[in-house]
């Protein structure tokens, strides 16, 4: 790794464009911290202000590859203006298309995968020394530095110690996926499931708690497949980890995402009875309500098993808010299959879910299936599903009016200087009159009105709230 005591070769800032999932957001955050520590690069809002431009890509859906080349075409202009800029491409497209990027985009200096982002400083240094050599020796042909290998644990070990950005933090506990659903590229771009050792995860959470974090969101492509080695050699699953996290002083709310239905073990379900800190909110993708489609997708479970899991959790937490992911127009999906998806959605009453049109991913088994569903049919089905999901989400928000919610206050409100903003267990933003001193506290808030993307609330007159109100001269 570069020596921070050396003068930085960069005078401008760092611009990272992130596509895709929470894992990518998390990775971008870690890259930013690493590059700030190594080169003193500070994040800037516009690419033209940057000396280093990074594209953190996602290839789960759409013509991700083309998007990357389009963006690089635009960035070429910035580089022509200031040739000592460094352009790097990371993430899943880099992992899949590394050599292609090197061939098609000579403007790119560094290509790294999701598992090699910790090696960025070394790769950047190598790119800079190649650039210096090319300037001296006209015959020397500079090429992009490329490392898209899967060195597993090395990434976790080499990233900067966590620093909290607020009262809620993501903690990556595992990487990759070994489920190989027929439509999905993740196992090929991020590698097989790999869990961080239990003690490392706990040390990170303890540090975050000392820095004032009150809520952790345990993160993984298949987070409930977590199997971390404990110091005594035993294996901790996600349930064991959740129990340990609840014991950390200061951590009073626990979330986890994203999960696979087949990893909802009894001990994880029991956590909903045993761990009050675990939120009554679960994101559990099902993709389709039709067993025929689930089998073609190689999800390895049937709709009835998924429903049974939800039923068990709802027995323990009747107010559970459930969200999911759905894929519409998988090859061979019939009108009846789609109706089964709609029926399942109606039955389970989903909250704020994600739905996508099936997108063939190069190298996946489903990509070679004949895709016999017309695009206009896929679009019509997606619209029908999204209308239903939106209706359900709006009804859940509306039903929260008049209820009292436990809210973690996260920040000042964006809209008013006298309001603060927090989140409910089901992840809705609530704005309400309150003192900035409430930031980092859990408070009871009565929901006054539900809007499309947030809720308006009123602090409930608990003795704590009254104490703050007296100091700040507002009424509760
Ligand atoms: N671990 C999760 C699970 O159990 O399903 C999935 C994580 S995956 C990266 C995120 C979501 O992207 C999936 O749930 C799926 O809905 C969507 N997705 C993945 N591949 C897709 C494809 N080829 N076309 C459309 N959507 C896709
Ligand atoms: Fe993808 Fe299926 Fe894993 S959707 S991330 S292969 S569980």
Fold blueprint:
Layout: E1 13-18, H1 22-39, E2 50-57, H2 64-81, E3 86-90, H3 91-104, E4 110-112, H4 120-136, E5 145-147, H5 153-158, E6 168-172, E7 174-175, H6 186-189, E8 194-195, H7 198-210, E9 215-219, E10 227-229, E11 235-237, H8 238-246, E12 253-257, H9 266-274, E13 281-283, H10 291-296, H11 303-316, E14 321-323, E15 325-328, H12 335-348, E16 354-357, H13 375-399, E17 404-412, E18 419-423, E19 429-433, E20 442-450, E21 455-459, H14 463-472
The structure holds S-adenosylmethionine and FE3-S4 cluster.
GO molecular function, one term: tRNA-2-methylthio-N(6)-dimethylallyladenosine(37) synthase activity
Domain TRAM: 398-461
EC number: 2.8.4.3
Written description of the protein model:
It is an enzyme of class 2 (transferase). Its EC number is 2.8.4.3. Monomer. By secondary structure, the protein is an alpha/beta fold. It folds into 4 domains: 13-147, Rossmann fold (3-Layer(aba) Sandwich); 161-279, 2-Layer Sandwich (Transcription Regulator spoIIAA), CATH 3.30.750; 282-398, Transcription Regulator spoIIAA (2-Layer Sandwich), CATH 3.30.750.200; 404-470, OB fold (Dihydrolipoamide Acetyltransferase, E2P) (Beta Barrel). The chain has helices spanning 22-39, 64-81, 91-104, 120-136, 153-158, 186-189, 198-210, 238-246, 266-274, 291-296, 303-316, 335-348, 375-399, 463-472, and strands at 13-18, 50-57, 86-90, 110-112, 145-147, 168-172, 174-175, 194-195, 215-219, 227-229, 235-237, 253-257, 281-283, 321-323, 325-328, 354-357, 404-412, 419-423, 429-433, 442-450, 455-459. The strands form 7 sheets. A 5-stranded parallel beta sheet has the order 1-2-3-4-5, with helices on both faces. Strand 3 (86-90), helix 3 (91-104) and strand 4 form a beta-alpha-beta unit. The longest helix is centred in the last third of the chain and has 25 residues, at 375-399. The protein is globular and about 70 Å long.
């Amino acid at each position: 790794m570069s020596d921070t005591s050396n003068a930085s070769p960069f005078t401008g800032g760092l611009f990272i464009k992130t596509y895709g999932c929470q894992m990518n957001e998390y990775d971008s955050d870690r890259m930013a911290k690493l590059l700030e520590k190594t080169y003193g690069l500070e994040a800037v809002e516009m690419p033209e202000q940057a000396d280093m431009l990074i594209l953190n890509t996602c290839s789960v859906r759409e013509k991700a590859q083309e998007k990357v080349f389009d963006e690089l075409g635009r960035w070429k202009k910035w580089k022509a203006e200031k040739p000592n800029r460094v352009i790097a491409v990371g993430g899943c497209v880099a992992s899949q298309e590394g050599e292609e990027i090197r061939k098609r985009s000579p403007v790119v200096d560094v290509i790294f995968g999701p598992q090699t982002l910790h090696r960025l400083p070394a790769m950047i240094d190598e790119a800079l020394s190649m650039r210096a050599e090319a300037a001296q020796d006209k015959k020397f042909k500079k090429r992009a530095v490329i490392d898209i290998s899967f060195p597993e644990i090395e990434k976790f070990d080499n990233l900067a110690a966590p620093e909290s950005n607020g009262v809620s933090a993501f903690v990556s506990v595992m990487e990759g996926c070994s489920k190989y659903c027929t439509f999905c590229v993740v196992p090929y771009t991020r590698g097989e499931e790999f869990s961080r050792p239990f003690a490392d995860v706990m040390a990170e959470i303890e540090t975050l708690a000392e820095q004032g974090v009150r809520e952790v969101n345990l993160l993984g492509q298949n987070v409930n497949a977590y199997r971390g080695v404990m110091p005594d050699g035993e294996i901790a699953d996600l349930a064991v980890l959740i129990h340990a996290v609840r014991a950390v002083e200061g951590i009073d709310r626990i979330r986890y995402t994203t999960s696979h239905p087949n990893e909802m073990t009894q001990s994880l379900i029991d956590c909903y009875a045993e761990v009050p800190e675990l939120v009554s909110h679960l994101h559990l993708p099902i993709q389709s309500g039709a067993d025929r489609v689930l089998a073609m997708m190689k999800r390895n479970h049937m709709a009835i098993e998924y429903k049974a899991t939800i039923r068990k959790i709802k027995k323990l937490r009747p107010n559970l808010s459930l969200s999911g992911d759905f894929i519409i127009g998988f090859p061979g999906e019939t009108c009846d299959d789609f109706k089964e998806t709609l029926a399942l959605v109606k039955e389970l009453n989903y909250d704020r879910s994600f739905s996508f049109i099936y997108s063939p991913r190069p190298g996946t088994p489903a990509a070679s299936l004949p895709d016999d569903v017309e695009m206009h049919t896929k679009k019509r089905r997606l619209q029908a599903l999204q209308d239903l999901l939106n209706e359900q989400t709006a009804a859940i928000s509306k039903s929260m009016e008049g209820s009292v919610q436990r809210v973690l206050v996260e920040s000042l409100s964006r809209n008013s200087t006298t309001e603060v903003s927090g989140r409910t267990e089901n992840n809705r933003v609530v704005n309400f009159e309150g003192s900035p001193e409430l930031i980092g506290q859990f408070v009871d808030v009565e929901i006054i009105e539900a809007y499309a993307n947030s809720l308006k609330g009123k602090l409930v007159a608990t003795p704590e709230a009254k104490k703050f109100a007296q100091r700040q001269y507002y009424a509760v």
